[in-house]
Design a protein that fits this description.
The complex is a heterodimer of chains A (151) and B (439). Chain A contains five helices and no strands. By secondary structure, chain A is an all-alpha fold. The chains are: A mainly alpha (151), B mainly beta (439). The interface between A and B is medium-sized, with 24 and 25 residues.
């Protein structure tokens, strides 16, 4: 049996860094951080002004972050299954951060479904934690290095 | 019993749809929790989890069944196939007018929650479009069968409150109080109505405009519900809301008669005293046993708490900015009917209703949604002595929930026919029922 010539076969070497995010995955990942941050700022504005429209803004911003974020979570999960060790640990952490962000965001959405000032005091810390997790997830996602140029 | 929760997001919506499946083996209409009726109801601490408790009995229809009435009484459907009957009026010649309509459609969706809550609540309602009309029912030969059923007036806008005084038929649309000329025996309005005064109708979260005519017909009283559960649409939306207006029948001039009544869904004048009474629906989402809906005499100039406080001066923390002065001024209603029973009908009884119901008031309870254990879905009688409520409410017309916990019907307006009958509008089965002492 002749050896199969595989000059282009991209069998990844164990030391090869993970591939960068797919552009669409990157776009999906770009949503939760600004939306959850907007929700946090809206919550602060509602807490300071008692103008309920700020709470409405926060509700929609969170809903938007969850909607787009759900696809990012899904993509990260699929990536996790397709990634082999040792990059798998890193993919797992990225997925975990994204999932934690989404779960916190969902709880935050339920809190924001309460009427008027009943969303306080939980809304502000929840929005802050969800924003922080969105930041962590985005940082991890975007800090994947492109593969080294090979000669 | 599977509570139906409302949540955010599309997945939650799908989940909610699943959970809205018929409630299982629910005993006939639970009683309001112990100590929740009468002048001094038990008020637990406000609480609300991540998901509010909800159970929506699904429409089941009556089939060959009928509501259950006390021994010695019978009940008959006197009109079927109506288009969302809400309130009724017995005319001097015994004819009955039925207001049919469904308002509040223009209330905007301001939060993701509104989508989901609106969908969930719609599961418990009739899908028939509101008639925007008055239907006249006539039993010419007095045999208890109302052989004539015809449209008295149409092209109204979600008519609800009805009153006849001094030859004028007043109709409270969701946006205006209008007046028809009425002469005895008329079966059709002689023309379009004339405007008495516009009524607050922006948003119209609580759209029903209840109506009663004062003793000599000089003044009319219109109940205007709040524009939110608890100010979640903003304070500005509550301008001219959650109050009873007194309107000059001649000029249409109005002024607030009593305020802070979250949703005064039925008004009536007490025979003998001329005192205005109301039933009102209180706020949701602070627990299954808060806040009791109530029956109360409406005191001129009084403030009943909404939104700042409930049942007197119990602070509602959900309202910002708070108003300690208003809280201090808030008075307690007279008589609790139980939380979430959704009292929508009120009329004083007459001795012709039989000894058991000789003195007191009938209350139609549309039934709860914001509670895992349904309450209401019946007509009760609040006995009175010396013109004041005296004693616990008594079940009169029941059986609106079937053994599976689904709703055959939902009572709204109740009207006492002085000839000795109780007229009940059922806006789920689109039926008008008539309960009479058995002859």
């Amino acid at each position: 049996m002749a050896a199969t010539p595989t000059p282009r076969s991209p069998t990844p070497s164990p030391t090869r860094p993970p591939r960068p995010l797919h552009p669409l995955h990157a776009i999906l990942l770009a949503f939760p951080l600004p939306l959850f941050l907007g929700a946090l700022l809206s919550d602060l504005a509602y807490n300071a002004s008692f103008h309920v429209q700020w709470a409405n803004f926060a509700s929609w911003l969170i809903a938007g972050g969850l909607l787009v974020g759900a696809f990012a979570v899904l993509w990260a999960l699929i990536d996790l299954f397709r990634t082999r060790a040792p990059a798998r640990t890193r993919a797992g952490l990225y997925f975990a951060a994204l999932l934690a962000m989404w779960v916190l965001g969902f709880i935050n959405a339920l809190v924001h479904a309460k009427d008027a000032f009943a969303i306080m005091p939980e809304a502000i810390p929840l929005s802050a934690i969800a924003t922080l997790l969105a930041l962590v997830a985005a940082w991890m996602g975007y800090s994947r290095r492109p593969p080294r140029e090979t000669a | 019993m599977r509570p139906l929760h409302h949540t955010l997001g599309a997945t939650a919506l799908a989940l909610a749809a699943l959970q809205a499946a018929p409630a299982t083996a629910q005993p006939q209409t639970a009683q309001p929790s112990t100590g929740q009726t009468g002048p001094d109801p038990a008020l637990p601490q406000p609480r609300r989890g991540l998901l509010p408790n909800m159970t929506i009995p699904r429409p089941a229809g009556w089939g060959t069944e009928r509501p259950t009435v006390p021994q010695g009484y019978t009940i008959q459907p006197i009109a079927t196939g109506l288009r969302i009957p809400r309130q009724t009026l017995v005319l001097p010649n015994g004819d009955i007018l039925v207001a049919e309509g469904s308002g509040g459609k223009q209330a905007p969706t301001v939060r993701p929650k509104d989508f989901i809550a609106g969908f969930i609540k719609s599961l418990g309602k009739s899908s028939t479009p509101g008639g925007n009309r008055l239907t006249l029912l006539r039993d010419a030969d007095g045999d208890g069968t109302y052989e004539l059923q015809q449209t008295f007036a149409e092209n109204l806008n979600a008519p609800y409150g009805l009153a006849l005084v001094n030859g004028s038929l007043f109709v409270a649309n969701q946006d205006a109080l209008v007046r028809f000329d009425y002469r005895d025996g008329q079966t059709q309005a002689s023309g379009p109505p004339e405007l008495v005064t516009d009524l607050p109708s922006e948003i119209n979260h609580h759209w029903t405009k209840s109506l009663a005519a004062g003793p000599n017909g000089e003044f009319l009283y219109v109940g205007i519900g709040s524009n939110s559960n608890i100010t979640e649409r903003g304070m500005a939306a509550e301008q001219d809301r959650a109050m009873v207006w007194r309107i000059d029948a001649e000029t249409g001039a109005h002024r607030p008669y009593a305020t802070g009544i979250r949703n005064p869904t039925a008004l009536t004048i007490q025979p003998g005293t001329g005192q205005l009474w109301a039933v009102a629906n209180e706020r949701d989402e602070i627990g299954p046993d808060l806040v009791p809906d109530y029956l109360t005499s409406v005191k001129e100039g009084a403030f009943y708490g909404w939104p700042y406080s409930y049942w007197g001066q119990n602070l509602d923390e959900r309202v910002r900015p708070q108003d300690p002065q208003k809280v201090a001024a808030a008075i307690r209603p007279d008589y609790a009917l139980g939380s979430h029973v959704a009292a929508l009908g009120l009329d004083f009884s007459a001795p012709t209703m039989g000894e058991a119901f000789a003195e007191g008031a009938f209350v139609g309870e549309h039934g709860s949604w914001n509670r895992s254990d349904p309450v209401g879905y019946k007509v009760v009688f609040v006995p009175f002595r010396d013109n004041r409520p005296a004693g616990p409410p008594v079940d009169v017309v029941t059986g609106f929930l079937n053994a599976e916990g689904n709703a055959r019907g939902r009572p709204v307006g109740v009207t006492v026919d002085p000839r000795g009958a109780l007229i009940i509008a059922d806006d789920l089965s689109n039926t008008v029922w008539r309960m009479t002492p058995a002859r």
